[in-house]
# Entry
Amino acid sequence: MTLIARLERIEFPDGASFTIDMFAGEGEVCDPDVFATLVLITSGNHCVTVFSPRRDERSVPGGWREPGESPLECAVREVAEETNLVLDPASLGACGYEVYTPLRVQGRWPERGGVLRLFRVELEAQLPVQAVLDDAVDPCWTKVSDFRDLAGERFWWPMIEAALAPAPPTNH
# Structure
């Protein structure tokens, strides 16, 4: 795993505050620490984005983990709820995570902090997307360059950008 950013005192609208360390790569994390997942769904130079009215921002599909659910199950469920895409769990690759260290906890955040896990999947074609629930709306295929213009200033962008980077060649 590679540390790509350390963000001090990120404040959330509910009053919570965290230091966030972002890591890129396929490294393992302890499942019980994962409180939420995100999924970067790409096809060519496009990715699926959704708009969150609660956060007033466009991002990739994802959300909070439910009791008894694995991080992978959470990722697949959130994508289905926010885009109506049904993904094969085996197609998802872990590609990064954010470690949230609490400074002030409010709302539904885990008291001890925790981990937000990022998965990625590349689809051969841009399948139709539509919202199923109202917590994330207006799913669409967005050019990666347009997504960067829309979200490049968000605190979480460095992790998405690292996941979008081509994988380094492997020597066999």
Remarks:
- The first strand starts at residue 2 and ends at 11.
